[in-house]
């Protein structure tokens, strides 16, 4: 590589890309977000208040369609789970998977 300048990949900033919500995901937002959703405030979260207990909280950032988060919550309902995702269709998909759980919140 003598005489050559190394090729550096350009840093890309995150850009929010919004997909379409299915009818089921839209219904999940309308009916389940009030129960499971945690609005972003920019400040610290009061986790015992959100979950109603002081059990351990496991957080998954960028949970995609929520499959692994839902599996963990179903398998270990004694723990609390906080999922953070900016892709609304993924949040809608997770909401459909966790309807009967009490140990999950999403933001």
TrEMBL record:
<dbReference type="GO" id="GO:0008176">
    <property type="term" value="F:tRNA (guanine(46)-N7)-methyltransferase activity"/>
</dbReference>
<keyword id="KW-0819">tRNA processing</keyword>
<keyword id="KW-0489">Methyltransferase</keyword>
<dbReference type="InterPro" id="IPR029063">
    <property type="entry name" value="SAM-dependent_MTases_sf"/>
</dbReference>
<keyword id="KW-0949">S-adenosyl-L-methionine</keyword>
<dbReference type="Pfam" id="PF02390">
    <property type="entry name" value="Methyltransf_4"/>
</dbReference>
<keyword id="KW-0808">Transferase</keyword>
<protein>
    <recommendedName>
        <fullName>tRNA (guanine(46)-N(7))-methyltransferase</fullName>
        <ecNumber>2.1.1.33</ecNumber>
    </recommendedName>
</protein>
<dbReference type="InterPro" id="IPR003358">
    <property type="entry name" value="tRNA_(Gua-N-7)_MeTrfase_Trmb"/>
</dbReference>
<dbReference type="GO" id="GO:0043527">
    <property type="term" value="C:tRNA methyltransferase complex"/>
</dbReference>
<comment type="function">
    <text>Catalyzes the formation of N(7)-methylguanine at position 46 (m7G46) in tRNA.</text>
</comment>
């Amino acid at each position: 590589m003598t005489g050559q300048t190394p090729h550096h990949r350009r840093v890309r900033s995150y850009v929010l890309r919004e997909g379409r919500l299915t009818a089921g995901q839209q219904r999940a937002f309308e009916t389940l977000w009030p129960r499971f959703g945690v609005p972003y405030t920019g400040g610290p979260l009061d986790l015992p208040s959100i979950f109603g207990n002081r059990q351990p909280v496991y957080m998954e950032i960028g949970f995609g369609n929520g499959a692994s988060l839902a599996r963990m919550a179903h398998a270990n309902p004694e723990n609390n789970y906080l999922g953070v995702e900016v892709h609304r269709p993924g949040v809608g998909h997770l909401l459909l998977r966790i309807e009967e759980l009490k140990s999950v919140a999403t933001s």
